[in-house]
Amino acid sequence: MFYSIGESSKLSGISIDTLRYYEKEKLIVVERDSSGRRKYTDLDIQWIAFIKRLKETGMPIKQIRRYAVLRYQGDSTLRERLEMLKEHRSYVVAQKESWDANLKHLDEKMKTYEEKINAAKV
């Protein structure tokens, strides 16, 4: 099944402008029909969802582009892609640990304030 850019935008939750940007940046390679209109496939939609997750986890566009180039080269690049994902996972885990520590500090500060407010009521 093929989808237009508008349908793909709705399915992926990514704006049309962003889809065009992804194509311009070589993050996605989309087939075109004889009239030049984009023809997105289910695999394209899945790939766009993965790009979205990579971005949400903080992978820079430059790295996503490198990953995309490898992806389009096929299975001969599986090891390299796996290494990229392992490295990125380490980055995500470190960021999560940092966020967890920051949340702990916020919780401690809020608890201090709540204790002072409650003590003032007595």
How are the SSEs placed, and which strands pair?
Blueprint: H1 5-12, H2 16-24, E1 31-32, E2 38-39, H3 42-56, H4 61-73, H5 78-121
Mind explaining what this structure looks like?
The protein has helices at residues 5-12, 16-24, 42-56, 61-73, 78-121, and strands at residues 31-32, 38-39. By secondary structure, the protein is mainly alpha-helical. It has one domain (5-121): Multidrug-efflux Transporter Regulator, Chain: A, Domain 2. Strands 1-2 form a two-stranded antiparallel sheet. The chain is elongated and about 80 Å long. The mean pLDDT is 96.
- Order of helical and strand elements: HHEEHHH
Largest sheet: 2 strands, antiparallel
Q: The CATH topology, please? A: Multidrug-efflux Transporter Regulator, Chain: A, Domain 2
Average pLDDT figure: 96
Entry keywords:
Multidrug-efflux Transporter Regulator, Chain: A, Domain 2, two-stranded antiparallel ribbon, mainly alpha, 5 helices, about 120 residues, elongated, about 75% helix, 2 strands, single chain
